[in-house]
Amino acid sequence: QPGEVVLDACAAPGGKATHLAELMDNQGCLPAIERREERLAVLKENCRRLGASIVVPVLGDARRPMEALRGSAEVIARLGSREAEHGMFADRILLDAPCSGIGVLRRHPEAKWKTDANGLQRHQRLQRELLESLASVLRPGGVLVYSTCSTEQEETEDVVGRFCDAHRDWTRESVAPWLPPTALPFVTAQGALSTMSNECGMDGFFAARLRRNQ
């Protein structure tokens, strides 16, 4: 919503961050973390080109979100030093996590030569670290969306399930109320969005909605 603080945790090249800025009527604050300088440059250019002035590109590791954000003078200026020091500042968080990319093999077939069981385990460790770290900066009542372009259990339900088991003060919510009617067949029994094994030729994608209760 306009005026909120929304964190895009793995932001480059900026498609999601700029769309969020549009949904917010370019009002509020949208820190966008990216750990690679060359990708951050692309993010900055896309924000400039699209006029997404509330997006604040931040160079840093989303596994240490407060360290990254405190290093940005612009974030401190927009949030206020007290808010930035407090920690729980975000109303919403989008974690479109790095993953194996198995869901988009049709467009990136070379990825299958780089994927093995060990790779899935490495990705899962990173995804769990990101989710744990980012959860600490979400305000009570806030919502975090975890998503991947993967169809693998290790990178989707396993990550979300382990997190929920370890954090009883969080609630998993169905994504159905936020989807158009044509997307409802892709809602799983657990309330996530999953296009795995769809008959429409779509990429494989997963997204789960989590709310912090306190």
Keyword list:
6-stranded mixed β-sheet, alpha/beta, 8 strands, 7 helices, two-stranded parallel sheet, 214 residues
Topology:
Elements: E1 6-8, H1 15-23, E2 30-34, H2 37-50, E3 55-59, H3 65-70, H4 73-79, H5 81-86, E4 90-96, H6 117-135, E5 138-148, H7 157-166, E6 170-173, E7 193-194, E8 206-212
Parallel strand pairs: 1-4, 2-3, 4-5
Antiparallel strand pairs: 5-8, 6-8, 7-8
Largest sheet: 6 strands, mixed
- What class do helices, strands and sheet pairing give? alpha/beta
- How many helices? The count is 7
Proportion of residues in β-strands: 15-25%
Summarize the structure.
This protein has seven helices and eight strands. It is α/β, with parallel strands linked by helices and 214 residues long.
Could you describe the 3D structure shown?
- By secondary structure, the chain is of the alpha/beta class.
- 33% of the residues lie in helices and 21% in strands.
- The protein has helices at 15-23, 37-50, 65-70, 73-79, 81-86, 117-135, 157-166; strands at 6-8, 30-34, 55-59, 90-96, 138-148, 170-173, 193-194, 206-212.
- The strands form two sheets. Strands 1, 4, 5, 6, 7 and 8 form a six-stranded mixed sheet that branches.
- Helix 2 links the parallel strand 2 and strand 3.
